[in-house]
């Protein structure tokens, strides 16, 4: 019998001001003792909701509206909070999506282990401390941090500690909800390695939730793909890689390219998932599906066994002989026949011959921090040299803390270098960035625009898109009246928010993450910049949206001849967008060159580390 | 430790600035304090008697010498608690007048504030924990309603009902039939006089704490660390106290220290209505009759109280919230 058996689970959110949403609709799956099961799906598909339901932590306005959750033979879907207590942490524990805030900020880490250990075991006093020490060792953190407060730890450390906390009582089942999202790839990689090792050693079962296909496929024995509150497909991971059944799965797989190829090609799923408050008839994926047939729009595909997997798709069912309707659909295809994004090494070589736009010449930045009487010097950047080209994209790659953002700040003129110089070869002659003052500096700030990681906080939630975009136009170009409106709409259309009239009066919360990021980019474009500095602009977005934003950047480079400095820790996306790569480690440029060369034959250990951290599910499938 | 040292250093600096301003401002004002005082004693329209003014100048220790030496002797006087002489209560010194009113207010308002805070925090926390229960709804509705009432209106209602109507409590003054001192009769007398003003304040002051605590607590209950505490299967009481209330308390504690500093300003109305012999009433009077030395003394007291309260708030915050220590260091 399975450890966890979920049958026909439905979950409904009934917010006061908005229509009710069936976020999860008749979902069934099971997880065996010691099994590692992945759950992927794009943002809003209901992954976290499922995890929370299994943990029985759903909060108002959400509730389980149907089905059962059987854990070890008992249906826990309807137990009271008191009855649940004997399952909590001892049997089922968790690491949350944004575990950055999962620790109580005002108490020491140690106490947060101690309370749960004392609550569920006979251990007391020194034994508890001993246990915590062991747990810290397990996640490779020096036990001296036991007495630290959460804010004194780095994101990666906090996440490891959350993991240790989840294992404190030796649970049989752990829900990991995006445990590493938002962390540096290298840290992410090492934490997930840690998870994998501990799981093999201790034998707990895992439900691993993530929107990052790569890590899920890398770690899980079995993978479930979720779309609009339902399971689209479920298969053993190896099998899923070899023979994906659902078109959506194929679309997700298509977003992984091989960064080492001469020409990288990724496909992506166009459009957005349906609004769950108004679920369409038939297949929820139909509007985005290239394999769609007539009946898809009318009849909802049932969950069907196909080979060793399960799939909810008409076409797949027919192809695998699980549907006797006799409709002609042709043989199964492996790829997603959707839009493609292509980057070839030849085109990159072309771009690198463009005119220089910014020259970074032997630039260093030393921060001096007073600590009592001593002055502590931190070399954030030392002796950096590189050139940004017009009409080209350069990636600035490195682990967190390598000095990427410091460099970006100096290039945008917010900070001045302690040594060396940065020259901007603008339309009105060469200028040294750090020496600009007054009007000149203001106009430079207009020519250089930044796009940040988090599109959610970059926009003022109380302003419409029209107002947001009008501000820079009024300030920098003195536009007014109908001219202003025309230009706003034009900007919206440039970033593919069309028709623009439909978007001008919307508020940020009415947009998806990708749409918001595009608004941020539109705002950057409002002042007709010559250089865009984009700091991790896609890392918080879903794969299909990522492609959308990359595509937009690519278009800007080609159509407007702007230069882009793309800051990231992810070499795969760097290869997709960039012509050249500059690798930074501890403030020094350790390697630079054409993107393909750097990725194919990395010269520095740091580059290799970053490359190894890219999840590569396909490597495992091939071997 | 650096955090605390910084806060204390900052306190000393602002204290110095306040004291200095208090020295400078009257000196920048036109007019001769001795003349003002004689005029005050003689009545509005009386002719000024030069000799009296001279005598008064001597009595007041009229300023002489350079600004710096005046400043120096001002600091010396201040160190001895010498704030000058009150116009209205002549020949009492400002320090004496304030000293007498001080304890009336501090005891009344201090007790009321402490009690209100405790009650407010408890009710607010409990309402948030049982959100949308009948208890929560009644607490919120009643608080919001009472919050819209004017304190002096409540005061009048109480005077009318419990004072004149039922005659249970005296409606004005601080004591009457007894001699001040530490004896049973006086304590009883003072307490019964303090009852109505205290009740008025007790009805009004907890509102802010209740609603504030309820809001922060509800916000905190949505935080991930609360969810995690639930997932850990900890007993409800531990989650409510150690996780939710402990965090929600932070802004309230800082607010409380500040409220204590603001005691003076907040009680002018109520003290005036009940003719209670505290600082608030004194302040009202001093403003009314332009008793500058007294006013100046009260202002200094208020400013210092606010500064001290701020310091306490900062120090408390540093103890309660480890993040503050680090962020400011
Ligand atoms: N508190 C809530 N009130 C109303 N609707 C909600 C609430 N929480 C989630 N939803 C809705 O439920 C659906 C599923 O959300 P959920 O958080 O489970 O998605 P997810 O797959 O975990 O997404 P992500 O990858 O962004 O974490 C979404 O449509 C969301 O808008
Ligand atoms: S059922 Fe039809 S629309 Fe849905 S995924 Fe399958 S082919 Fe596409
Ligand atoms: Mg989620």
Automatic annotation (TrEMBL), chain A:
Q: Which SMART domains match?
A: AAA
Q: Which CDD domains match?
A: ABC_NikE_OppD_transporters (cd03257)
Family matches, as SUPFAM superfamilies? P-loop containing nucleoside triphosphate hydrolases
Q: Which superkingdom heads the taxonomic lineage of this protein's source?
A: Bacteria
- The segment(s) forming the ABC transporter domain are 6-253, 358-611
State any single GO MF term. Answer: ATP hydrolysis activity
Q: Which GO terms describe its biological process?
A: peptide transport; transmembrane transport
Which keywords label this protein? ATP-binding, Nucleotide-binding, Transport
Q: Which Gene3D superfamilies match?
A: P-loop containing nucleotide triphosphate hydrolases (3.40.50.300)
Q: Which InterPro entries match?
A: AAA+_ATPase (IPR003593), ABC_transp_ATP-bind (IPR050319), ABC_transporter-like_ATP-bd (IPR003439), ABC_transporter-like_CS (IPR017871), Oligopep_ABC_C (IPR013563), P-loop_NTPase (IPR027417), RLI1 (IPR013283)
Similarity comment: family membership: Belongs to the ABC transporter superfamily.
- PANTHER family, A to Z: ABC TRANSPORTER, ATP-BINDING PROTEIN, TRANSPORT ATP-BINDING PROTEIN
This one is known as: ABC transporter ATP-binding protein
Write down the species: Kribbella sindirgiensis
Taxon lineage: Bacteria, Bacillati, Actinomycetota, Actinomycetes, Propionibacteriales
From TrEMBL, chain B:
Q: Which domain of life is it from?
A: Bacteria
Q: Which GO terms describe its biological process?
A: transmembrane transport
Residue ranges crossing the lipid bilayer per the database entry: 101-129, 141-166, 186-211, 248-274, 294-317
For the keyword Glycoprotein, the answer is no
Q: Which SUPFAM superfamilies match?
A: MetI-like (SSF161098)
| Alphabetical keyword list | Membrane, Transmembrane, Transmembrane helix, Transport
Q: Which GO terms describe its cellular component?
A: plasma membrane
The record's listing under PANTHER family reads: OLIGOPEPTIDE TRANSPORT SYSTEM PERMEASE PROTEIN
Domain ABC transmembrane type-1 span(s) in chain numbering: 102-313
Instruction: Tell me its family.
Output: Belongs to the binding-protein-dependent transport system permease family.
- Does the keyword section mention Acetylation? no
Query: Know the name of this protein?
Result: ABC transporter permease
